[in-house]
Write a structure and sequence with these properties.
Elements lengths: L9 H10 L17 H6 L1 H12 L4 E3 L30 E6 L18 H6 L6 E3 L7 E3 L2 E7 L4 E6 L13 H12 L6 H9 L3 E6 L2 E5 L7 H5 L17 H4 L11 E9 L3 E6 L19 E6 L3 H9 L5 E3 L3 H7 L5 H4 L3 E7 L8 E4 L9 H10 L2 H7 L6 E2 L22 H10 L4 E2 L5 E2 L7 E6 L8 H9 L4 E6 L2 H9 L5 E4 L12 H4 L9 E3 L2 E2 L7 E2 L19 H12 L3 H18 L2 E3 L1 E2 L2 E7 L2 E2 L19 E2 L1 H13 L8 E3 L6
Parallel strand pairs: 1-7, 2-11, 13-29, 18-19, 18-20
Antiparallel strand pairs: 3-4, 5-6, 6-8, 7-8, 9-10, 10-11, 12-26, 13-26, 14-20, 14-24, 15-25, 16-17, 21-22, 21-23, 27-28
């Protein structure tokens, strides 16, 4: 997610605005549909949007620009430092890899969270307000040129950058803002997390003209603008046929982008690769916080399913850079003695970042018997030896996660620690659940003969050597762990559809002031029929009746443990309503206690850095990457030096060497 935008006939604009029950704004500056009247009349989305505007007039509000408050303190981030190098060179093709070909080009909906989404949305599409990656809690303009916060009314005001264009040439306007909220709140979307988030966190959208709007929120959050303005819009004109069945229609449809890169149909090589092309004369190329970024003319993503082969492909020069996340690749496959590394043609790096840690661990599906028994889950905590994983597999480079939410600005709970590996304690917990009979193979069973045997599923091929450590140690506690290593897309799909027993997986955490819990642990994100109010289903726990035996499993959500604890749900809702950081911290500690007690997640590991290698023709700003970067490509601050690229290619033929050595960047390392 650009030809100039034709306007709707004035009569349709008046119809939409009058239906909203508000004072009409001038037709040319109102939030009217993009496209012509004939197209709108034949577009099912436009008809449904018009109905939605009428029925939800309390949310979709249209006011004249004269009613914009006059005393607002507008911000534009001009006092903040840049984090890219404005002198970075443009051009060239950068090649990296993805572990599997995507199942869709959609960035939302089933299968849309696979390996391609960051390069179609998260890393490349500007948001209305961006978080500064070196200054926590500071924001800079993305799609806005200015914003203002009225804390008393929990309202953020936005002025869109008039230069912003979609990749098909059409301008970004408040038409797209209106559509985005309609889209994300629509039942046709089929995505409960988006429906919930964009309904409960936004109480009103006020449109003043084509470039000015405001968002009103139910609570006065301490990070109002950067938390709720940090999202990207969708192009209204590209979704005329949005509605029932849209997921299939948009499975392989390329839609216009507002960011630096677009994916063209001819650059989708099914099963093999995808190549992004930088938008010609991209509107934000010279903006303060975008200059020096998105430097490659083409960004190629080749499918390499085996991580070992990916490292080999990099060492042959087929890839420009690579993350070396596993010790095997760092210490054995591409060590400092590798010929290309020793010759200085490949440079290895280690970068210490400061981010909320990915929640690596074992995610237990409590909807599967006997994992629905708390004592079985507690026993598994004591039967899993992640400390040994940190020592052996990670060779001492990783440490055990202490809580579900490590890496934020404070410790979520002052005393919680992982349950230790203790086969005796594990057997005692299993005995409380009735598993007391040990078979000839050493595996515990209950009186009915049901064995403590579970399948551990992961979509990470690079972690396949980690799993045998867990398997061997669990045998000491009378547990059999069967190992299932799938490709990344299939593995993640299985867990999101809740077809796993135990999953070894992690979600990247949003870089925010404090964590989110609803999507991971609220019962309504596990079951459609978790709660009722006045006899009707509701996603809200507070003031509702909890279903003692829900059966309607909600798939394609991040509650992959199927957690449903009404007390926890009410706490999460209170946490989401909290308006002060002190209240957030107090409730977060209580939430972490309940998560710990429910025992559906077994603490895995974390590292305070990422590391990898790049060919020396790939260049970086001073300091390498922003503090809150989670990987090489996230902020797109690197570039290719074509002269040095030619020199390196010649050096590989004639044996020339360069200065080398480990590039270690520890300026952001925690003390």
């Amino acid at each position: 997610m650009p030809r100039p935008t034709p306007t709707l006939a004035a009569v349709l604009a008046c119809l939409l605005l009058t239906a909203c029950g508000r004072d009409p704004a001038p037709p040319a500056s109102s939030a009217t549909a993009t496209g012509n009247a004939a197209t709108a009349a034949n577009a099912p989305m436009e008809a449904d949007l018009a109905r939605t505007l009428r029925e939800q007039a309390d949310f979709y509000t249209f006011r004249p620009l004269a009613e914009l408050p006059a005393n607002l303190a507008w911000q534009d981030g001009a006092d903040l430092p840049e984090f890219a190098d404005p002198a970075a060179k443009k051009g060239g093709t950068y090649t990296t890899f993805i572990a599997d070909f995507p199942r869709t080009l959609r960035t939302i909906g089933p299968d849309a969270t696979g390996g391609i989404r960051p390069f179609l949305l998260d890393y490349v599409e500007p948001r209305f307000i961006e978080r500064h990656p070196n200054l926590p809690d500071a924001g800079y303009p993305g799609l806005t040129r200015q914003w203002a916060v009225d804390a008393a009314s929990a309202t953020t005001y936005y002025r869109l950058d008039p230069a912003a264009r979609w990749s098909d040439g059409r301008p970004l306007t408040t038409d797209d803002v209106v559509f985005t909220f309609y889209f994300l709140r629509s039942p046709h979307l089929g995505q409960p997390w988006y429906n919930d988030f964009y309904t409960k966190n936004y109480t009103k959208l006020i449109v003043y003209d084509r470039h000015t709007f405001a968002l009103v929120h139910p609570e006065r959050k301490p990070d109002l603008a950067t938390r709720f303005g940090n999202f990207s819009p969708y192009p209204r004109h590209a979704y005329a046929d949005f509605g029932p069945g849209w997921i299939e229609r948009f499975q392989w449809r390329n839609t216009p982008k507002v960011g630096a890169y677009e994916l063209r149909d001819r650059d989708v090589e099914k099963g093999r690769a995808l190549t992004l092309t930088r938008v010609k004369d991209w509107w934000a190329a010279d903006k303060r916080f975008f200059r020096g970024r998105y430097n490659f003319d083409r960004f190629r993503l080749e499918v390499v399913r085996d991580p070992d082969k990916a490292v080999e492909a990099f060492a042959r020069g087929n890839l420009d850079a690579i993350t070396l996340g596993t010790p095997k690749h760092w210490y054995e496959t591409l060590p400092e003695t590798h010929p290309e590394v020793a010759a200085g043609r490949i440079l290895r790096f280690q970068f210490f970042n400061r981010v909320p840690q990915p929640d690596w661990g074992l995610w237990i599906n409590r909807a599967r018997a006997p994992l629905d028994q708390p004592d079985v889950r507690v026993g598994l905590h004591h039967a899993v030896n992640f400390d040994l994983v940190c020592q052996q597999f990670f060779r001492g480079d990783a440490v055990r996660l202490q809580t579900r939410s490590d890496g934020y600005g404070w410790r979520m709970h002052p005393t919680l620690r992982p349950r230790p590996f203790d086969p005796g304690a594990a057997r005692a917990a299993f005995a409380r659940a009735g598993f007391t009979q040990q078979g000839a193979d050493g595996i515990l069973a209950d009186a009915s003969g049901r064995r403590l045997s579970f399948t551990v599923t992961t979509g990470r091929q690079d972690l396949r050597d980690l799993l045998p450590i867990l398997k061997q140690e669990a045998l000491k506690a009378g547990v059999e762990l069967n190992l299932e290593v799938l490709d990344r897309t299939t593995g993640f799909k299985k867990t999101q559809e809740k077809n796993h027993e135990i999953a070894l997986v992690a979600l990247s955490r949003s870089v925010e002031l404090y964590p989110r819990y609803w999507e991971l642990y609220h019962g309504s994100n596990a079951y459609h029929d978790a709660y009722t109010r006045d006899g009707r289903p509701t996603p809200v726990a507070t003031g509702s009746v909890a279903n003692p035996a829900p059966t309607q499993i909600r798939t394609q959500t991040n509650n992959m443990t199927m957690t449903f604890v009404p007390e926890l749900d009410r706490l999460i809702e209170a946490y989401d309503r909290a308006e002060t950081l002190d209240e957030v911290k107090r409730l977060a500690a209580q939430i972490e206690e309940l998560i710990f007690a429910d025992a559906t997640w077994i603490n895995g590991w974390s590292t305070p850095f990422y590391r990898g290698a790049y060919w020396r023709h790939v260049k970086w700003p001073a300091g390498f990457n922003p503090m809150q970067s989670r990987n090489l490509e996230e902020f797109f601050v690197h570039w290719i030096d074509p002269q040095e690229q030619a020199e390196v290619e010649a050096a590989r033929r004639n044996g020339r060497t360069f200065p080398g050595g480990l590039q270690r960047f520890d300026q952001f390392r925690e003390p």
